[in-house]
Write a structure and sequence with these properties.
single chain; 331 residues; alpha+beta; 3 domains; eleven-stranded mixed β-sheet; two-stranded antiparallel ribbon; 6 helices; globular
Length: 331
C-alpha cells in the first residue's frame, strides 16, 4: 500500500511539473507571459508510437537541469511496443521538456532513436519526419526575433563538440573491437545502422566525416512552420535498430542565421562567395547553399536526390543579408 501511494504521488508530481510548463493542462488555458515554446514531434508511421520534445524559454528556468521546469524522458506504452524517442541530452539527463532562460542562446542537442518496451532490437520499415510546431497559445512569446535553426549533426562527432577530429578518433580507437549496446564508437554497420559492434564499418563511416567533410542542410524552423506545415522530412527507417541507440543527432540553435553559410555570426560577402560557388548546381547530394525551396525548406531532385540551388535559395539568402548576430538592430 505504501509503495502504491508513493507511485501515485510521483505520478501526480510529474503531471504538476508538466502543467506548470504548459499552463493549459492545469490552469485552464492560462498563458505565461514572456515564454516561448517549440514542440518537435518525431513522427514515424503507424502502428508505431511517435514521441515529442519541447524546448521552452522562460524567465524562471535555468541552463542546467531543474526539477520544476525540465522533465525527464519517460517511456509510455501504446498500441505496439515500438516508439520513436526524441530527447535533449544534457550531462546526466535525458529530457523531453528542456527549459532554458528567456534570453538563452544555448544550443539544444537532440538525439533520435527507437525504443522498444522489452529492450530488444527493433526491425522496422517506416517513414520518418520531424514536425515542428510553435503553439498558438504562446503567440507573441515565440522566442522574440531570435533565429531558430535545426541541423543534423555528424555521428562521427563522438564527443559532440561540433567537429570531427583526433579527440573523436581516440574514442573510436578505444572502442574498436568491442561489442555492446552502449558503445560510443558504434555508429554504423553493414546497413549503415549501429549494430552493437565497433569494427571496419564504423571506421569507414567515421572517415567520411573526418575533419567535417559531411554537409547537412540547415532548416529554418519558422520557414518550415509557415510554408510546409512544420514538416522536416527524414530518411525512412529501414533495418534493425538497437533500442535507444541514437541513429541521428540534431542541433537546435538560436544564434545562427540561415544565410550565414560559414557560421561566423554574420551574413556578408564571405557567405555570398560560398553561395555563388553552388549557384545552379544540381549534382551534389547536399550543398551548403541549399537553404530553401518552394515549400520553405531545402529541396532535392526527386530522381537523383541531389540538391537544387536556384532562385528560392537566392531569395532566402538575400533575406538575411548583412545581419549580425551580435547586433540585434540588424534583425
Amino acid at each position: 500500500m505504501k509503495k502504491t501511494l508513493e507511485n501515485i504521488l510521483n505520478f501526480v508530481k510529474d503531471k504538476v511539473k508538466i502543467g506548470v510548463i504548459f499552463g493549459s493542462l492545469v490552469f485552464g488555458g492560462a498563458v505565461y507571459g514572456n515564454t516561448g515554446k517549440l514542440e518537435i514531434i518525431n513522427s514515424i508511421g503507424n502502428p508505431y508510437g511517435s514521441q515529442s520534445h519541447a524546448t521552452v524559454h522562460r524567465i524562471e528556468a535555468t541552463e542546467g537541469y531543474d526539477d520544476i521546469y525540465d522533465h525527464e524522458y519517460g517511456f509510455m506504452s501504446g498500441p505496439t511496443d515500438v516508439f520513436s524517442k526524441i530527447i535533449s541530452k544534457i550531462p546526466g539527463y535525458e529530457l523531453d521538456v528542456d527549459s532554458r532562460p528567456l534570453d538563452s542562446n544555448t544550443s539544444i542537442n537532440l538525439e533520435l532513436s527507437l525504443h522498444s518496451e522489452n529492450g530488444q532490437p527493433i526491425s522496422i520499415t517506416s517513414g520518418n519526419e520531424l514536425i515542428c510546431n510553435l503553439p498558438l497559445e504562446y503567440l507573441g512569446y515565440d522566442f522574440g526575433s531570435k533565429p531558430i535553426t535545426l541541423q543534423q549533426q555528424d555521428l562521427s562527432d563522438l564527443n559532440k563538440d561540433g567537429k570531427v577530429d583526433f579527440h573523436d578518433f581516440a574514442i573510436l580507437a578505444n572502442d574498436y573491437g568491442e561489442t555492446g549496446n552502449a558503445l560510443a564508437g558504434d555508429i554504423s554497420g553493414e546497413y549503415n545502422i549501429s549494430d552493437g559492434h565497433v569494427d571496419f564499418y564504423d571506421v569507414a563511416y567515421f572517415s567520411g566525416g573526418w575533419l567535417n567533410k559531411r554537409v547537412y542542410p540547415v532548416y529554418d524552423i519558422r520557414d518550415a512552420n509557415e510554408f510546409n506545415n512544420g514538416v522536416i522530412p527524414l530518411p525512412g527507417l529501414d533495418g534493425t535498430y538497437i533500442s535507444e541507440k541514437p541513429y541521428s543527432n540534431f542541433q537546435l540553435r538560436f544564434d545562427r542565421f540561415l544565410s550565414d553559410l560559414n557560421d561566423d555570426g554574420k551574413v556578408d560577402f564571405r557567405d555570398y562567395a560560398l553561395f555563388a560557388g553552388g549557384w545552379g548546381k544540381k549534382d551534389m547530394e547536399n550543398h551548403i547553399a541549399n537553404i530553401s525551396g518552394s515549400n520553405g525548406i531545402p529541396d532535392y531532385n526527386n530522381v537523383t536526390g541531389n540538391a537544387i540551388i536556384d532562385g528560392y535559395d537566392l531569395g532566402r539568402f538575400c533575406k538575411g543579408w548583412l545581419k549580425d548576430i551580435t547586433d540585434p538592430n540588424t534583425w
